[in-house]
Amino acid sequence: MISRLDQGLPFDLLVSWLPDLIGCLGAILVLIAYAFLQMGKLKSNGILYSFLNFVAAIMILISLFYSWNLAAFVMEVAWMMISTYGIVKVILLDKLGHKISF
Predict the structure, then answer these.
(1) Is there a contact between 38 and 54 (Cβ–Cβ < 8 Å)?
(2) Which is deepest, 40, 61, 73, 101, by most CB within 10 Å?
(3) Pairs from 39-46 (Cβ < 8 Å, separation ≥ 24)
(4) Tens digits of residue pLDDT in 6-30
């Protein structure tokens, strides 16, 4: 076993689990953002909450391109669109001089 580890992981093995790892990290990011929202550490109308959700959706989409699931794909695209709306809204409000919450 140790001699196998010394040789390193084969490239195909690395590529096979990397998309799952990225997708799992994206799911964890969504959960962290939601937990922080519930704890009052993030505001639902803040740019950081929308940004975290946007990045998480991209990460989950990356994993879906390797292990396809149409329903999950539709969900993540919608998640990205809603997050984009939130980000644009905060940026526009900032340009108009309104107070921004994070």
Answers:
(1) no
(2) 61
(3) 42/102, 43/101, 43/102, 45/86, 45/89, 45/90, 45/101, 46/90, 46/100, 46/101, 46/102
(4) 566 677 777 789 999 999 999 999 9
Read off the pLDDT of residues 22-51 as tens digits, 9 standing for 90 and up: 999 999 999 999 999 999 999 999 999 999
Q: In the prediction, which pLDDT does 4 show?
A: 52
**φ, ψ for residue 45 (rounded to 5)?**
-100, 15
DSSP letter string, 20-71: HHHHHHHHHHHHHHHHHHHTTSS-TTSHHHHHHHHHHHHHHHHHHHHS--HH
Which tokens sit at 63? 């994993």
The CA radius of gyration of the chain, in Å to the nearest whole number, is 18
